[in-house]
């Protein structure tokens, strides 16, 4: 699933491609992707004649800002956007087509069909699900070590589960949680409320640093992720633990192990991330 760095990269590339483009038609071949409104004709008619003015990101969501509406899009596992010529035949995995007056198309392609779109009057998008439930942005001024400590102190869940919870901190998924915890020398199974202030300061820094580095490298192309121009990310080449089961730790030389924590495959270094005894 694309995480914050990948969605941020898609946002940045799409802004170069579709701003000031006007929609002349919308075609939906898999209606279940459209969650709001639940009538596809209404979704289509509201968007015809609308112009793309900006694209924002909230957590793992893209927020397309048009004249009168905000289109909220979640890529889920394998969703991706691309710009195509109107004459180019769409493939079988293309489920939403925004046909532009310039005779180009913004196409949403999703092999697994898990992605979602919500359309709200502009200005109301943050008052409804899915955006209303989201937690603090890692790149915002509100995300401080003190704020993170306060959030973690409220729960006894293990730190991996808490960081994956988008109502606490947004944008972190399996890749970047594993990476941030490694950099902070924190085992993923430690209880969130057992981390002291020094632990949390290290974790805060590792979250921000990891995400910033990943954004600067265009995200991580682990399976199928590409940006809005079809380009792969490169951060996967610098990963410390994720996807490196059985390999040597780049810091200490011990063997990276993989187990299951909170139902998710989890990569750790046994030496750099020791289990704490109580």
Please describe what this structure looks like.
Its cofactor is Zn(2+). The structure is a single chain. This protein is an alpha+beta fold. The protein has six helices and eleven strands. The strands form three sheets. It has a five-stranded mixed beta sheet with strand order 2-9-5-4-3, covered by helices on one side.
CA-to-CA gap between the ends? Answer: 35 Å
Order of helices and strands: HEEHEEEEEEEHHHHEE
**CATH architecture descriptor of the largest domain:** Alpha-Beta Barrel
Please outline the major beta sheet: 5 strands, mixed
Structural class: alpha+beta
Q: Which residues form runs of ≥5 with pLDDT under 50?
A: 222-227
Output the CATH homologous superfamily of the largest domain: MutM-like, N-terminal
> Rg from C-alpha positions?
20 Å
Spatial sequence of strands, sheet with the most strands:
2-9-5-4-3
- Mean pLDDT score: 93
Topology:
Elements: H1 4-18, E1 23-28, E2 34-36, H2 40-47, E3 54-58, E4 61-65, E5 69-74, E6 80-85, E7 94-100, E8 104-109, E9 116-121, H3 145-152, H4 159-164, H5 174-183, H6 197-216, E10 257-261, E11 264-268
Parallel strand pairs: 2-9
Antiparallel strand pairs: 1-7, 3-4, 4-5, 5-9, 6-8, 7-8, 10-11
Helix pairs in contact: 1-6, 3-6, 5-6
GO molecular function: 8-oxo-7,8-dihydroguanine DNA N-glycosylase activity; class I DNA-(apurinic or apyrimidinic site) endonuclease activity; damaged DNA binding; double-stranded DNA binding; zinc ion binding
Domain Formamidopyrimidine-DNA glycosylase catalytic: 2-115
Protein name: Formamidopyrimidine-DNA glycosylase
């Amino acid at each position: 699933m694309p995480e914050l760095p990948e969605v941020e990269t898609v946002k940045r590339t799409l802004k170069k491609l579709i701003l000031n483009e006007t929609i002349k038609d919308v075609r939906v071949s898999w209606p279940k992707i459209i969650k709001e409104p639940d009538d596809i004709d209404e979704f289509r008619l509201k968007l015809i004649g609308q112009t793309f003015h900006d694209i924002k990101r909230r957590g793992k969501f893209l927020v397309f800002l048009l004249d009168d509406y905000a289109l909220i899009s979640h890529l889920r596992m394998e969703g991706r956007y691309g710009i195509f010529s109107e004459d180019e035949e769409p493939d079988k995995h293309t489920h939403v087509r925004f046909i532009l007056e310039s005779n180009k198309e913004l196409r949403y392609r999703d092999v697994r069909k898990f992605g979602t779109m919500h359309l709200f009057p502009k200005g109301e998008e943050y008052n409804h699900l899915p955006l209303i439930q989201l937690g603090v942005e890692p790149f915002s001024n509100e995300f401080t070590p003190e704020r993170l400590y306060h959030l973690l102190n409220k729960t006894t869940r293990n730190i991996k589960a808490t960081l994956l919870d988008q109502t606490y901190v947004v944008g972190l998924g399996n890749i970047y949680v594993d990476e941030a915890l490694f950099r902070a020398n924190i085992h993923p199974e430690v209880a969130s409320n057992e981390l002291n202030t020094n632990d949390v300061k290290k974790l805060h820094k590792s979250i921000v640093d990891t995400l910033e580095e990943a954004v600067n490298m265009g995200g991580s192309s682990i399976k199928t992720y590409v940006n809005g121009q079809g380009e792969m990310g490169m951060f996967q080449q610098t990963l410390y633990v994720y996807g490196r089961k059985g390999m040597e730790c780049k810091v200490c030389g011990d063997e990276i192990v993989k187990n299951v924590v909170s139902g998710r495959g989890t990569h750790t270094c046994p030496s750099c991330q020791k289990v704490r005894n109580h």
